[in-house]
Predict the 3D structure of the following.
Amino acid sequence: MRANLLESTRFNFFMLRIQKCLLKEIMQIQIENINFILDKKLFWAKLNRKSAHCWGFFRNKSLLFFYPLKKMREVLTIEVGQAGIQLGNAIWEQYCAEHGIDNSGKRKENVAKMIPSKCSFEETGSGQFVPRNLAVEVRVTCILLASGQFDLEPNVIDVKNGPFAAMFHPEFLVHSKEDAANNFARGHYTIGKQIIDKVNDRLRKLVDNCDNVMGFVIGHSVGGGTGSGLGALILERLTVDYRKKPKLGFEIYPSPNLSACVVERYNSLLATHWLLDHTEVSLLLDNKAIYGICQKQLRIAKPDVNNLNRLISKVISSMTASLRFSGELNVDLNEFQTNLVPFPRLHFMTTGMSPIIPKADTGTAPNDVQKITDDYFKPANWFMKFTEFDPAEDKYMAISLNY
Ligand SMILES: Nc1nc2c(ncn2[C@@H]2O[C@H](COP(=O)(O)OP(=O)(O)OP(=O)(O)O)[C@@H](O)[C@H]2O)c(=O)[nH]1
């Protein structure tokens, strides 16, 4: 007997009372893609859908055992605007290196042990791994890399000529003909409104290709018109269409070192207002702080966006590592919210990384766990600058350390 218990029920706990007549054979019950084999002597069982925990009694009063056969939870990545797409490129480059996938999406030889995760990649019949990614950009040339990327300007979306071009499905690189001209309102109400249906359609296709979507990771800048305006619009639609799926946002905040555009701070303010309601967890990435890390710690005299994106991609990769690799420790997207967010609107996180050392020093720098942990708590290693932060006096509300 196979019962599909779908999301229709509103209860976290529900009782399965199994009649004697149904217990002739071993039963397989599928709950959100977790299969439980129940012994035929089972008397009753109680299942917690949230933690996929199950307990109960056999008729001889021994405790029920269960084991999950399959647990596939996919994470979809969405990149919006030029910054989002460039960041996406860095992320997929990082993921490919970690999973042993080459530029064309094929598994590299001699790295057989690194099994590409179906959480982030979809395996096609020909053995190619296609990122579960959508890129949206208004300028076409920006669409260089990611699946699930959106931008509005045609010249930015050049994913088709980028090094990872063969890996992405062109259908999931969405663009329009003109850009948002660094204007939130234009990205949100004018250009955004024109392509949002297309974006929704592609998103629906991405979701349909998954067994069970765990949530969304969205990368965008809040300074540009597309990243802020269209990004907010997409987040709003995700909230409406996929209400229970968590959305993890990586929001790039503008820095005067990288951009002299005066309206970026207004765009950021407007976008942040949308983020209050439409992301479950937002990781704030301050370009100025990351720029400082590159200069002071990596000794790069004039860092460019690639240096910044590479650092950010490592943070994102470490947050999704436990989803992409099997192991004892499993943190799903919901857990970031459960453990770190005390109140729904209070979900803006600071992130950081350690050790951050120049390539030349990798052999000589100490890298024991204590040192790495201590370094992490130094504000110099954070991707956000707090002008009056005092490490001794100020308090943290919640901390999550991923090693
Ligand atoms: N970290 C990082 N920041 C970037 C990158 N590209 C642009 N930015 C920053 O993002 C802001 C500009 O946003 P963009 O993403 O270029 O603009 P957009 O979202 O495409 O919007 P429009 O150009 O108005 O259509 C500026 O503050 C840039 O400094 C990048 O690759 N990495």
